[in-house]
Amino acid sequence: GSPRRLLLISNSTLHGVGYLGHCQQHIQSFLGQKVKRVLFIPYALHDRDAYALTAREKFESLGYGLDSIHESCDPVEAVRKSEAIFIGGGNTFRLLKALYDNCLIHEIRKRVLEDGIPYMGSSAGTNVATVSINTTNDMPIVYPPSLRALGLVPFNINPHYLDPDIKRTHMGETREERIRQYHEEPNTPPVLGLREGTMLLVEGDKATLQGVTGARLFLRGKKPTEHEPGTDFSFLLTDSNPLNP
Fold first, then answer.
1. Which Pfam families does the entry mention (predicted)?
2. Which is catalytic among the residues 10, 12, 138, 183?
């Protein structure tokens, strides 16, 4: 079995709760007592210093030290020495471009999939953990060399998934329609729509939905299905996908 351990969070801030407040117990349970320091990757936001400060204050309040990769003179070496990795949210295109620019795609994959260090992502950090960033909600403000991401799981995720508002007058596509358009293309993997307040815990070959809201699963050529916290999504980890790097 795979040694991978992932906590893929839809959002870092939930309405009425502070930064990572809604999932801090999940984080502590996930990281446990073995991990002493977390390597934070703030590439999704422009002001990396301020972002690292926010993350550091939170993780220190939970009992963990935090090192930000942007403060390291050698990002690759920082990943190689890391005990756990956390990639925060922001713009997914900016994040993925920086991961490529700093030669981190292969290194993070190796540390997580081979060495088994814990990986946490929120929002954009969850997007890049998947096959590709094709199902992000973000604007392509920069151009990564590829839309292929870390491939820590063989499917895609849509964080911040929004249900259609039946009272709306806005005539643009719903999130569901956009995902359906993605699935009109050949060889596209499943997409898990994670509502805010929801996260996916992956331990080896087992995946479980956690949090306070549900998720919507989209499979190419099939009607989407609704799932509550506690759902076993392990079958998504065994689906082979030609896009998976």
1. Peptidase_S51
2. 138
